[in-house]
Write a structure and sequence with these properties.
By secondary structure, the protein is α+β, with helices and mostly antiparallel strands. Helix content is 16%, strand content 40%. It comes from Umboniibacter marinipuniceus.
């Protein structure tokens, strides 16, 4: 697929640099135009395999004078040839655009998409509340998947223990048991991942809660994003990815 024919759901204007190190979770040092620059890292997870010294990283730029760090680390182009989006907010942007444009056949019967709606017994916010013309609701939670846990293309979520993800699954399970349509969408932001499973070796409780949620009626989908220096684009074979056993 040529660059000109790609349908970008998330477009970015990015500047390349070379990664030196990530530290204190939210910071990274890079070499940019021959100078050492500290940039903001928007990912709070372990980011395993998402950035090694010497990798090319792609940075967005903010002109806001209040920003302490002008650059934000958005993408990694690894030395092995993979593209990874390390900013988890982009997963929500990508999925939101896919839902609004009704690109996902499984969700095309929904005509309205509302982001960040309060719901549940634990004070949660659902990533997307979907509505049909008859005002029937569907609840969609997005998870950014960047952990390539096996070299044969198996990805896993989460890359670190996540109490927040536990809460989301409990909320979705309660709704599913009431017969409400609920969906968990793993947005794959790593070009090497071909299937996804819960990371039971990292967060066994998350894996258990996922099993319980699916038994209650939660539907799990995998949505891969194409990634390059211009942003995130729709893949025509997006439905070919699957959950791993």
């Amino acid at each position: 697929m040529s660059l000109s024919s790609r349908e970008y759901l998330v477009q970015m204007s990015l500047t390349p640099a070379v990664l030196i190190r990530r530290y204190k979770r939210f910071l990274a040092d890079v070499e940019l135009s021959g100078e050492l620059v500290t940039v903001y890292c928007p990912n709070t997870g372990a980011m395993t395999g998402c950035g090694q010294a010497g990798d090319t990283v792609w940075l967005s730029i903010s002109d806001k004078p209040s920003r302490k760090y002008r650059y934000t680390w958005e993408l990694t182009e690894t030395q092995s040839g993979h593209w990874i989006c390390v900013n988890p907010q982009r997963a929500n942007e990508f999925l939101g655009q896919a839902l609004e444009r009704r690109l996902m056949a499984s969700h095309s019967h929904y005509t309205n998409c509302i982001a960040e709606q309060k719901y549940g017994e634990e004070g949660s916010r659902i990533d997307f509340l979907l509505q049909t013309e008859s005002k029937l609701n569907g609840y969609v939670e997005a998870k950014s998947c960047t952990l390539l846990i096996q070299e044969d293309g198996v990805g896993a979520f989460p890359d670190a223990k996540s109490v927040r993800a536990h809460k989301h699954l409990r909320e979705l399970t309660r709704l599913a048991r009431q017969g409400v349509p609920t969906y968990l969408v793993y947005v794959v932001l790593h070009s090497g991942i071909r299937s996804v499973r819960p990371a039971s070796e990292i967060d066994p409780h998350y894996a258990l809660l996922t099993t319980e949620a699916i038994a209650a009626g939660l539907e799990v989908f995998i949505l891969p994003a194409g990634i390059d220096q211009k942003g995130l684009f729709w893949l025509e074979d997006a439905s070919n990815l699957r959950l791993a056993n």
